[in-house]
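Re: your question from the hallway

Yes, I did run it. Sequences:
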Amino acid sequence: MILAKVVGTLVSSQKEQSMDGLKFLILQQVDLSGQANGGFVVAADAVQAGVGEMVLYASGSSARQTVMTDKKPCDAVVMAIVDQWEVDGDTKYKKGLDD
Amino acid sequence: MILAKVVGTLVSSQKEQSMDGLKFLILQQVDLSGQANGGFVVAADAVQAGVGEMVLYASGSSARQTVMTDKKPCDAVVMAIVDQWEVDGDTKYKKGLDD
Amino acid sequence: MILAKVVGTLVSSQKEQSMDGLKFLILQQVDLSGQANGGFVVAADAVQAGVGEMVLYASGSSARQTVMTDKKPCDAVVMAIVDQWEVDGDTKYKKGLDD
Amino acid sequence: MILAKVVGTLVSSQKEQSMDGLKFLILQQVDLSGQANGGFVVAADAVQAGVGEMVLYASGSSARQTVMTDKKPCDAVVMAIVDQWEVDGDTKYKKGLDD
Amino acid sequence: MILAKVVGTLVSSQKEQSMDGLKFLILQQVDLSGQANGGFVVAADAVQAGVGEMVLYASGSSARQTVMTDKKPCDAVVMAIVDQWEVDGDTKYKKGLDD
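Structure:
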């Protein structure tokens, strides 16, 4: 999974019918300090994530292994909202502190 | 999914038989300002997108999860035409305004 | 799918048995002008493409969705020979003219 | 599979329900000398790997082929802890010596 | 498939149980001249390849379409040992000559 921050939303009215009801989130990849780094991707939301939250997203066929994305033409899904992470014993991000 | 602009079309008469009837679109990836950025890809069209439109495309096995691409050797599909997107609360693209 | 030119062939006698009879083509990725750009890949041939032809190839599990590659350890397949493509209304490539 | 070092852990309480009980590891890719090189990824742990260990991870649908990740929205899994590797006959890494 | 040279081997005793008996090879990607170029990957061996040999490997779900890797958390497999390849009519590599 890739670590990213939800930075926006996207709206589409004309789409493959099975995508109806899915929310599209714009994700900015971040580094282990939580800073923007790398590209962005548009992902379906399986966990009611909001703008500003740090999340994990899964890509490829794994993006269809959620209740909301099963059998849909979706190749990226936010499947976890991140509470915190540690690197080499140091807390690098803790939700609520670094937002 | 990846954000892209439809910039062209491609024709092939000699192809895997199951691909008959699919339309190939040439997509240019764009950044969050809607400007060309990154590479291009050729995708099948599942939503009757036209040249000049901003779209989302899905890759890999997810590209086969549409009525038009099911069980076909297709690894990229346009599955949504984009109406608008917002980043950090600002509307960055709105169909009809920025075209 | 990715646009590429067939630039060569590859022979292997010792391989997974299911690959017997498949032809391996060496593909050079090209840009929208048809010029070599980016990397190369080795793909199975599903459409009897020849050296010098512009083709599309599909990657990943989609590369197994042809009659010739079904259930085989093949992650790239040439599934279309390109006749022509247009970008922003201009014909950028037409088979027979640009070869 | 990709060679990486476990450098941290990540916690998420709000996630796709099927992910409950999986441990998330932060992996730093390494080169053949075992030095950090390239990006990082967050992977599920299928082999009880610990911080500091050299591991292999598998991506994509293959990341779901473990007892712990089957049918889950998981696109990267640690499926082996590395004991040692050799390049051109030289031992480049041996667990316990280079940690 | 990607062209690579087998440059080493890797040993893991603690791994997903289904991986028992598979041999891990370290592969260095090569260019069309057979010279090291690009990254490396660790792949399972389906064709009894040895260090120094030029091979093709398949990635993703296609890496599980061999007798040895079926249903295993393996995302890269050596599925062919290369005898020779030609580019634009010139033999660029022939086994036994260039090793």
